[in-house]
Design a protein that fits this description.
The chain is an alpha/beta fold. The relative contact order is 0.09. It has helices at 22-33, 49-55, 87-95, 102-111, 125-138, 208-219, 235-241, 292-306, 312-320, 348-361, 384-391, 416-425, 436-443, 464-475; strands at 13-17, 37-41, 59-61, 75-78, 99-101, 115-120, 144-151, 156-159, 165-170, 174-176, 179-182, 191-194, 227-231, 248-252, 259-266, 271-277, 280-287, 330-335, 338-343, 367-371, 396-400, 429-433, 452-456. It has 3 domains: 11-97, Rossmann fold; 105-320, Mur-like, catalytic domain (UDP-N-acetylmuramoyl-L-alanine:D-glutamate ligase); 330-475, Mur ligase, C-terminal domain (Protein-Tyrosine Phosphatase, Chain A), CATH 3.90.190.20. The termini are far apart.
C-alpha cells in the first residue's frame, strides 16, 4: 500500500460528485490510499457504499450544493450520473476548478505502467472481477483491483499495491457528461475477459448494434501479445471478436470450447464442476455460490489466471474459499424459515439467471420475486416482454412502480401493468404495489416457513432489505 505520510498528494483535496456509486466510492478509497484528502457528495447515501465510505472516514455531503465545494478542492471527479445543471458542476465550471472523469483518473494515475486485466460484458463483470482478484491474491500476487461492489473476501471494492497487475471491471456505460464514450476504452487491456454482449443501457445506446460497436472497439485495444477469454455462445460475441489481433480462448459448455465445463452438480450448499482444457481433463472445482452463470464466471477467471502462471490447484483453492460480492445473491436475513435475498438487478437476463440459480439452490421452495424497475434499462418498455418472462420463473411476483418515472419519456416508459398482465397470462400470480412499505404490509402475513424472497433492485429500494425482516420478527 502507498504511504500517505510521504506522498506528495497528502495535502491535496479531491472531491467526488456522485460518490456513492460503487465505482466512485472505490475510486475514493484509491485516492485516499494515494494520500489525497477525500470528500464527496451525493443525492442520497445508502448501503453498502455509504457504510464503506464511513468506515474510511470519507465525508458524504447531502444534497448537492455549491457550498460543498468551499473551500475549493484541488481536483473534482465527476461521476457519470451527474449532468449539467448540478449546482456543484456549475460552480466547478464557473470557477475553473480542475476536473476529470472516473476512468480518466484511473488510467492516468493508477493503471498506466501496470498490466491491465479488464473484465467486460453485459453480465457477470463484478463477480468475475472479484473472483479473478481473489485468485491472484490467494496465489501471492497481491494485485491492485477495482470492482463495482464489495468483494467479501477482501471486505473492500479496491486494493492498491505496488505490484504488476491491475484487475478492473470494465463498464460499457459512458464516462461523464463531457465524455460520452464507454469507461472501458480508458483501461487499455493487456488481457481481458468478455462474458456476454446484449442490448443494455437503453438510455445511452440506440440499439444492439451500438452496443456491439463499443465492445468491438474494446477488443481492438488488446495488443497482439495479449489474450482474450470469451464465452463460447452467441452470435453477438462472435461478431465482436472476429477482428481480434490477439489469441482468443473460448470457455463454456460446447464441445469446441478450449475451456469446457462438464459434470456440473448443484447441491443446497455447494456447486461442483470439472473443466476440460483442449479436450483433456484439467481441473476439478467447487464453491459455495449457486447458479450456472457463476460457474461460467469462475471458469473464465480460472482460464485468465492460468495464463498468468497460476496453477490449477491454487485456482481451485481460491475458488473454494470465494465468498461472493455484496448484493449478489446475498442472504440478508433468515426469519422463521423465510430466506430473504438481495440481488443487484439491472437487466431481464440477469434477473432470469438469478431466479434460476435460486431454483437450483432452494429446490422445492416457494420463490418470490420482488422487483423494483430502477435501472435505466428496466424502466423502459424495450424489455417489457423479456422482463415478464424472467420474473415468471418465480412463483409469486411483485413489481413496484418504476423509479422516477418522470425521467423517462412516456412513450418509452415501462408499463408495470402490462408486465403484470403478461405474467398472469403465463399462469403466475403477479401484482403491482406502490413501494417498499406497501410490499411489506401486503406480503408479511402471506410469507411462510420455507419461502425464499428475492429482492431485485440496483438501488436502496426504500430500505426494504431491513423493513421486511423487522416486520417478520415482529410477527413472532
Amino acid at each position: 500500500m502507498s504511504n500517505s505520510k510521504s506522498n506528495p498528494n497528502s495535502q491535496k483535496h479531491a472531491h467526488l460528485i456522485g460518490i456513492c456509486g460503487t465505482a466512485m466510492a472505490s475510486l475514493a478509497g484509491l485516492l485516499q490510499e494515494r494520500g489525497f484528502r477525500v470528500t464527496g457528495s451525493d443525492a442520497a447515501a445508502y448501503p453498502p457504499m455509504s457504510e464503506f465510505l464511513a468506515a474510511r472516514g470519507i465525508r458524504i455531503m447531502e444534497p448537492y450544493a455549491e457550498a460543498n465545494l468551499n473551500p475549493k478542492p484541488d481536483l473534482i471527479v465527476v461521476g457519470n450520473a451527474i449532468s449539467r445543471g448540478n449546482p456543484e458542476v456549475e460552480y466547478m465550471l464557473n470557477e475553473r476548478i480542475p476536473f476529470k472523469s472516473l476512468p480518466q483518473i484511473l488510467h492516468e494515475d493508477f493503471i498506466t505502467g501496470r498490466e491491465s486485466l479488464v473484465v467486460a460484458g453485459t453480465h457477470g463483470k463484478t463477480t468475475t472481477t472479484s473472483m479473478l482478484a481473489w485468485i491472484f491474491e490467494s496465489a501471492g500476487k497481491r494485485p491492485s483491483f477495482l470492482v463495482g461492489g464489495i468483494a467479501e473476501n477482501f471486505g473492500s471494492s479496491f486494493a492498491l499495491n505496488e505490484t504488476q497487475h491491475f484487475i478492473i471491471e470494465g463498464d460499457e456505460y459512458d464516462s461523464a457528461f463531457f465524455d460520452k464514450g464507454p469507461k472501458f476504452l480508458h483501461y487499455f487491456p493487456d488481457a481481458m475477459i468478455l462474458t456476454s454482449v446484449e442490448f443494455d443501457h437503453a438510455d445511452i445506446y440506440k440499439d444492439l448494434d451500438a452496443v456491439k460497436t463499443a465492445f468491438k472497439r474494446l477488443v481492438n485495444l488488446v495488443p497482439q501479445r495479449g489474450r482474450i477469454i470469451a464465452y463460447d455462445a452467441g452470435a453477438n460475441l462472435d461478431e465482436c471478436l472476429v477482428k481480434a489481433f490477439c489469441p482468443v480462448e473460448r470457455y463454456g459448455f460446447s464441445e469446441g470450447a478450449k475451456w469446457r465445463i462438464i459434470d456440473l452438480e448443484f447441491s443446497r450448499e455447494r456447486t461442483n464442476w470439472r473443466v476440460m482444457k483442449d479436450g483433456a481433463a484439467w481441473g476439478d472445482f467447487e464453491f459455495s455460490l449457486a447458479g450456472e452463470y457463476n460457474v461460467l464466471n469462475a471458469t473464465a477467471a480460472a482460464a485468465l489466471a492460468a495464463g498468468y502462471g497460476i496453477g490449477k490447484d491454487a485456482i481451485a483453492n481460491a475458488l473454494k474459499s470465494f465468498q461472493s460480492v455484496k448484493r449478489r445473491l446475498e442472504v440478508r436475513a433468515e426469519v422463521n424459515g423465510i430466506t430473504i435475498i438481495d440481488d443487484f438487478a439491472h437487466h431481464p437476463t440477469a434477473i432470469a439467471e438469478t431466479l434460476k440459480a435460486l431454483r437450483t439452490r432452494y429446490a422445492g421452495a416457494r420463490l418470490w420475486a420482488i422487483c423494483e424497475p430502477r435501472s435505466n434499462t428496466l424502466r423502459r418498455k424495450v424489455f417489457e416482454k423479456e422482463l415478464a418472462e424472467s420474473l415468471a420463473i418465480a412463483d409469486e411476483i411483485i413489481i413496484t412502480s418504476i423509479f422516477r418515472p418522470e425521467a423517462i419519456a412516456e412513450d418509452e416508459r415501462l408499463s408495470v401493468a402490462s408486465v403484470v398482465s403478461k405474467i398472469a397470462a403465463a399462469g403466475k400470480h403477479a401484482r403491482e404495489l406502490r413501494d417498499a412499505d406497501a410490499i411489506v404490509d401486503a406480503i408479511s402475513p402471506e410469507l411462510r416457513s420455507g419461502d425464499v424472497v428475492a429482492i431485485l433492485s440496483n438501488g436502496g429500494f426504500g430500505n426494504i432489505y431491513e423493513k421486511l425482516p423487522q416486520r417478520l420478527r415482529a410477527r413472532e
